[in-house]
Each structure stands twice: as structure tokens, then as C-alpha cells.
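Sequence only, no structure available. Ideas?
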Amino acid sequence: MMNDRGGLPLRPPREATSMMYELVTPFLQKDFCRHELVLLGVTPEIVALPWPENVNFRAFDQSEEMIASVWQPNPAILSSVEQACWQSMPVDESSVDLILGDGCTTQLPDKLAYQKLFTELARILQPNGTIVMRCFIRPPLQESLDQVVRDAFAGTINYFGSLKWRIAMALVEQQDHFSIRVSDIFDTFNDLFPDRGQLALIAGWPPEMIETIERYHQSDTCYTFPSLTQLETLLSQWFTISEVHWGHYELSERCPVLVLRRV
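Reply:
I predicted one. C-alpha cells follow.
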């Protein structure tokens, strides 16, 4: 329970992974040939889905630590992991049927990284291939930090991950671009909630869960939170967003599952 309350919706809930699986299952079952599937990251909730036997599942992550601590192969299919940057994967051109990702665009630091990623995905994807990914996007209407604080002290934010993302997105809204330094999220959190014990009591979160925010302290990492319109513009040279699916869990209105097709 603690992991869920700290990790959701940053970690994909079952509703999101089920939605992704339902979207790709008809594609994988339309014939009996072997399908090449690439996962951006090592998201265990996706790896463990009941993939059919005709899937060759390849995951890529540039973090050796993430691979060592998170990766577990799916015993029912051919599944492997390799350490590689998503912008340059050891995959043959036009050799992949399906690409999956969960929250991966948020880890891109700037617009140039988006361009490099989608250039690479267009290179490895077959012309009739599909990309299905859950993305974290800013809402169409700006949310103030004051509103985030009010909701937190009203006890209406169920997940600590939701609080972190709402702070991050509110900060991005105050800038002309959609990139935010992780250290700025940490500093703003401390300004808004100087008494972590009080926040823990009101929200019902264990203090050690709130202390995970320390990972953001003095970090050089940048996250990006474009709006859906901005994201569509960013990838328009290579892909179109053919479908947008929304869930019902907390903050799901900012975590759509997108289906991308080659231009």
C-alpha cells in the first residue's frame, strides 16, 4: 500500500496497463507471425502482462542501476533487456512492429531530446507499426500552487506522486517552455510544506514516503511536461496521434494513453 500511495500515478496503475494491453492485443493477434516489441524503460507492470508467445520483447534503459534493480524477464515469452540510450538503440531499421512506453517523454530534458527520440523511433518502426505510450501532460487550464496547497491540506490528494507532479506542472506553467529542474520541485515543495509532519498527518502518508522527495535535492535532472497540443506539435514531423484514451484514477486527466502512427 505504501508503494502505491507514494508511486501512483507516476507508476502505471493496473487500469493504465490494462488499457495499453487492450489497445495492442488485436494488433498482435491479427496473424501468426512473430512480432518485435520494444519497451522504452523496464516498467515491470508492462513486462509482466500476459503477452502472447509470438512476441519478441526487448526492453531498453540507459540506467544500469534501473536494469539491475527493476528488470525481471517475462517467463512466458522471449524477453530481454539492454542498456542503451533511447535516442540510439541497437535495433535494425524498420524492424519493430510495436513500441511501448510509460511516462518516458517526461524524462526527456528539452525539445531537442524529443526530436532525437522520435527520429529514432521512426527509424526502427515499420511503416505500419504502432506506438502506444502513457504520457504526463499539463492540463489545458493553469493550476496555481495555491490550489495545490489547498487540496493537500484538505486531504483530497491521495498519492504523494500526484502532489509532486502537480507542483511540477504548476511551476512549468509559469515559464515559456515546458522543462523544469527536479531541484526546483524540491525547493518549491519545501517552501510550500515546511512542516512535513503536518503534511503526513493530514494526508495520511508515512513520513518516510514524504522523505523520498530528498532524491530531488540538488539534482541536475530536468523533467518536461508539455501540453497535449505541444506534444502533438513536437512529434508531428514523424507521427500523428491517432487515438487518445483517458483513465479514471487520480490525475488520469494528465496521463493519457496515446496511440501514434507513422506520418
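The chain is about 40% helix and 20% strand.
Hope that gets you unstuck.
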